[in-house]
Every structure is written in structure tokens, then in C-alpha cells.
Design a protein that fits this description.
By secondary structure, this protein is of the alpha+beta class. It has helices at residues 13-27, 32-39, 43-55, 78-98, 142-146, 150-158, 171-184, 227-243; strands at residues 2-4, 10-12, 59-62, 65-68, 101-108, 111-118, 132-134, 187-190, 197-206, 209-219.
């Protein structure tokens, strides 16, 4: 299948698929309507290519926005693997000492990518290795959003926020939670992503930038007193930070076009 370009040449199906990928990659995220308008490809064809690219694992859809999957991020190969290797003993130790689920996540544009987990079987945990979820999907992700560049925070806060449960916050409440994370250095979410589940998450900051987030997740009744788990998580963050190279790009760098690094407090 081909279409004519303005220059009179033919654009193959492969070319159009690559243009769709490039359009989304260049912007970090896009809605289907933006792709249709920006590329001038018929809507039926655009939806078909988007569906094929999602099924092939090249695109993820979060809150109605299409994002490059981890297969298309600049450093989701060696960098992510390096970080997983460095974090593996930390996750195993936290899991053994706490008996809780442990999650390692990084930010990819305006989404959270789960790199690794240790699962305890204590209830349902929505994050699994390789999964992409919203940056407000509970305390396994929110530390990444709280320390993300202002442009990323604006995109998330001004977009459509999916209500995973009745406890999932709206934009105003989420903004307040993010401000609190930046002050206290951790976040506790209860039932944001899965009813009956509580998560405690902390950012891992290297060279002034948030590299990843560590979190522990369990049933609400397992985390009625967060003091001891919080201490364990702090120890885990300290241990992981000590293992990481000070050159941030050697482990993982979020693939942003806008790396202003400034939180959005407005």
C-alpha cells in the first residue's frame, strides 16, 4: 500500500509507520489526532499503524497518549540493564528483610517503566518487569514525577488522569502530593493503583538528578506502621546510591528532549 507525497513521490507502508514512530519519539508523546494532523496520513491508516506498533511492543498508551516503549528509548538497553544489575542485590535484600514486594522503576518520558521486582505474593502488585504505567500510579512511580523536569510535570498534570481506583487523586490533589514528596523525600500511597494495597516509594538521586525510584508494596494491614519499612527503604536507597557511578549516563538517563530539571511548583 502506498500514498502520494506532496513532492509527487510514493510513501510506502513502512515509511508511514516509521514516520509515525519518529513523530512520537521526537515529541515524547502524542495523541492519534496530533499524528493525523501533523503527518497528513489518513485517520484509518494512522489507527492501523498505531495498533500494529502497539502490538509489536514499540508504543505504549498511557492516559490516551502514545509514548515510545522501552524498546525505543535511547538508553533502555545497556543503561537499563546496567542499573538492573547494580540494583539486584539491593532489591533482594529489601525483599528478604521486609517480606514485602519491592519495585525498581525509572521514568521514560511521561511514564514509569518497571525495570525489576521482587514479589512476595502478598496480594496483587500491578508493577511487573517491563511494564509501563502512569507516573502517578502510586508511590512506585510518584517520586519519579515529583523530581521530573517541569515540562514533564505539566504534561502529566494537564493531561487526562485515569482513575485507577476511587483513591486515585485528581490533578490538584496530585500536585499537592508531589510538593510533599519533594519536602519529605518519600511518598506513601494507599489504594491509588490497587484497592487494599499500600506503597512506600523513594527517589534515588545521583549527581542532582533522579535516576530511579525504589518502593515497597504490601497489603494495607502490613503497612499500618510505616516506620520500620521506611527505615529499610532509606537503607536500600543509600546502598543503591553507593553502588551507582557518579556519571549518571553510565547507568540510566531519562530520554527527554527537555532536561530543564526544574520541578513544577506552580
Amino acid at each position: 500500500m502506498t500514498i502520494r507525497t506532496k513532492a509527487g513521490g510514493e510513501l510506502s507502508s513502512l515509511d508511514r509507520g516509521l514516520r509515525v514512530l519518529a513523530f512520537i519519539q521526537d515529541r515524547g508523546q502524542a495523541e492519534v489526532a496530533e499524528i493525523i494532523s501533523g503527518l497528513g496520513i489518513p485517520s484509518s491508516a494512522t489507527y492501523r499503524y498505531v495498533r500494529l506498533l502497539k502490538n509489536a511492543g514499540f508504543l505504549a498508551e498511557i492516559d490516551g497518549k502514545l509514548l515510545p516503549s522501552e524498546r525505543l528509548t535511547d538508553r533502555a538497553g545497556d543503561g537499563a540493564g546496567h542499573l538492573v544489575d547494580l540494583a539486584r542485590p539491593v532489591l533482594t535484600g529489601l525483599h528478604r528483610r521486609s517480606g514485602l514486594n519491592v519495585v525498581l522503576a525509572v521514568r521514560v518520558h511521561t511514564a514509569a517503566l518497571c525495570l525489576d521486582t521482587r514479589r512476595s505474593g502478598t496480594g496483587s502488585v500491578s508493577f511487573r518487569a517491563g511494564q509501563i504505567l502512569s507516573l502517578y500510579a502510586g508511590a512506585s512511580a510518584t517520586p519519579l514525577l515529583a523530581l521530573a523536569p517541569a515540562s514533564v510535570q505539566r504534561q502529566v498534570l494537564q493531561g487526562r488522569l485515569q482513575r485507577f481506583t476511587a483513591a486515585t487523586p485528581d490533578s490538584a490533589a496530585l500536585r499537592a502530593e508531589l510538593a510533599a514528596i519533594r519536602v519529605q523525600g518519600y511518598h506513601v500511597s494507599q489504594g491509588w493503583l490497587a484497592p487494599g494495597m499500600t506503597a512506600i516509594g523513594m527517589p534515588v538521586v545521583v549527581a542532582g538528578s533522579c535516576l530511579c525510584a525504589l518502593s515497597m508494596v504490601g497489603r494495607d494491614e502490613e503497612l499500618t506502621d510505616i516506620a520500620a519499612p521506611l527505615d529499610l527503604l532509606r537503607d536500600g536507597v543509600v546502598e543503591l546510591t553507593a553502588r551507582l557511578p557518579q556519571a549518571l549516563s553510565a547507568a540510566w538517563t531519562p530520554p527527554d528532549n527537555d532536561n530543564d530539571g526544574a520541578p513544577d511548583d506552580h
